[in-house]
Every structure is written in structure tokens, then in C-alpha cells.
Amino acid sequence: MPPVFAHGRLRLYLLKLLDEAPRHGYEVIRLLEERFQGLYAPSAGTVYPRLAKLEAEGLVTHATEGGRKVYSITDAGRAELADRGGELADLELEIRDSVTELAAEIRDDVRGAAGDLRREMRAAASASATQVEDESWKAAKEDLRKARQEWKEQARRAKDESRRAREEAQQARRQAKEAQERAREEVQRIAGQLQEQFAKSGGVLGSLAGAWLGGGAPAAGSADASAAAAAAAADGGRASEWAADLAATGDPARDLDRLLDRFRDEVRDAARDRGVTAAQVAEARGHLEAACGRLGTTFGARP
Predict the structure, then answer these.
(1) Mean per-residue pLDDT of the chain
(2) What is the distance between the alpha carbons of residues 94 and 100, in angstroms, rounded to a whole number?
(3) PANTHER family from the xrefs (predicted)?
(4) Within 10 A of 182 (CB to CB), how many other CB atoms are there?
């Protein structure tokens, strides 16, 4: 049969089956055989070692029921399954293609066998016309009838499985796309909160904010914030060079997300390396207030 489960693919499909419901090993084998309409079934020597490996990695667990191990997926297993959602959609397409190829191979085999049988019958008829209606001839006709019936049944099952696999693949793609959209919305939400939460990051936040925004006015009444803003303005030349390695993607919203991510990472790393004091947090709050005001003006402007 054509290869289906390349490296790591059977592991992924086992997680999918266990995510649907807890199952014992032979039930997993039976479900795989059903997905291939009886055209392929992995052996116990293939499935059980992989289940044991998944359990050793903490992706599945098992309980003994009636003397049999019943495997269930863990939260870690669901996380890996979610991370590989796109790969799972590709695997569903590969299974559908494999079923189609297997059906084609069976069809070719049946046609070849039928052709051989017809040639043998013609040869037998030529050798002895008087024996055309004997039991051998009747048996040959019955074999041919059964072969045709088997081919029709295999073709029907392959067509049904191909349709189901296509529908499952489409559903998997939709789910993967929805997951990506949710992830993007979450990143954008977090980016919106950075302006309120960066005050917790550390004492060097003011200089980084000034460099990123090209300087800005501090909060009223804060002498430390005024001094930091002046230093940031003096360092304004770095604004055009900061994050210059982040090339534009053509999507302004995505470019802004990437700049915010870079800003957050630099501030967090600096705070972790140098430590944070209460005075530095107060100073950082002034820088962030000024930066928030400048960005609000920038994004609120109309051409």
C-alpha cells in the first residue's frame, strides 16, 4: 500500500483518536481499519509500543478495566494536538489519497485477474468446445461474477471513505484557521494592555520607551520622569535605527504587533538583568504615560 504514516504521523493520529474518547489498543486498531475501509490495519506490534511511548512522554495515560488497558489523552496531549492542527489536516488529506490509491490498486488487480480468467476461458473453449458447459466453466463464470461484485463493493467503500476524509479535512482546516484567528486576537489584546502593564517591567523602561517613540513629555509633577524624557529626546536618533531588522510585512497591524513584542522583550530582559526598585517603577510610569499620550495622538490623527 502507499505510505500514509510517515515519521510522527501515526503518533499524531493516535492522539486524535484518544481525544475523541478513551480507547483500548484493539479498539484503536479497529478504528484505523475502519478509516481505511478494511484496506489497511496496523498490527498490535505497531500500535502498542507507540501508545507506551506516548504514555512515557506524559501525552496519554491509562487505566485498567476488565484486565485491559484503556488509554486517555492528557492535557499535554491535547496541547500537542492543538499545536499540530495544520499537520493533522494534511494527514486527513493523505489518508483520503491513500484510500483512493488503494482502491485503484484493487481495481487494477481485479481487472487483471478478470482478464487472465477470460483468457484462460477462451483457451479452454478453443481446446475443447464440447466441455464449455462443464463444472469448470460454470465455476469460472462464478469466479468472474464474484470478482466483479468485489470490485464494485471495494470501489463503493473507497468512494465513501474518500468523501468522509475530504469532509474531515475541510473541518480540520476550518478549526485550524479559527485557532489562528483566536491566537491573533489574543496577541492584539495583550499588545493593547502593554501600555498599562509595562510599568512593572523595570527601571530602564524610560530610556527604551524614549528611544522607540523618539522622546515624549513626562507625567506632570515628576522631576525624575522629566529628566528621563530629556535623555530620551537626546537619544532620538536611535528611533530610526531601533528594530530596523524587522522588515515591513505589508500589514501595518502586524508590523505594530511585532514592534510591541520587541519593546516588551527588551524591557523585560533589562529589568530581569538589572533588577527593579519602587523608584524605578514610578519613573517608568511617567514614561509610559507620556508614550501612551503620544501614541494616542498618532493613532487618533486623520490624514
Answers:
(1) 76
(2) 10
(3) TRANSCRIPTIONAL REGULATOR YQJI
(4) 10
Instruction: Please give the full DSSP string across the chain, using - where no structure is assigned.
Output: ------TTHHHHHHHHHHHHS-EEHHHHHHHHHHHTTTS----HHHHHHHHHHHHHTTSEEEEEETTEEEEEE-HHHHHHHHHTHHHHHHHHHHHHHHHHHHHHHHHHHHHHHHHHHHHHHHHHHHH-GGGTTSHHHHHHHHHHHHHHHHHHHHHHHHHHHHHHHHHHHHHHHHHHHHHHHHHHHHHHHHHHHHHHHGGGS-TTHHHHHHHHHT-----TT-HHHHHHHHHHHHTGGGGGTTTTTS---S-HHHHHHHHHHHHHHHHHHHHHHH---HHHHHHHHHHHHHHHHHHHHHHH---
Give dist(CA 180, CA 177) in Å, integer.
5
Closest CA to 94 of 166, 23, 151, 7: 166
User: What type of residue is 50?
Assistant: R
**In the Cβ-directed half-sphere of 35, how many Cα atoms lie within 13 Å?**
24
- Kind of pairing, strands 23-24 and 60-65? unpaired
User: Looking at the chain, how many residues does it have?
Assistant: 303
Separation CA 19–CA 36 (nearest Å): 19
pLDDT of residue 24: 92
pLDDT in tens, 140-180: 888 888 998 888 888 888 888 878 878 887 887 888 778 76
pLDDT by residue (tens digit) across 20-47?
Answer: 999 999 999 998 888 777 777 788 888 9
In Å, what is the CA distance from 188 to each residue of 194, 251, 296? 10, 14, 16
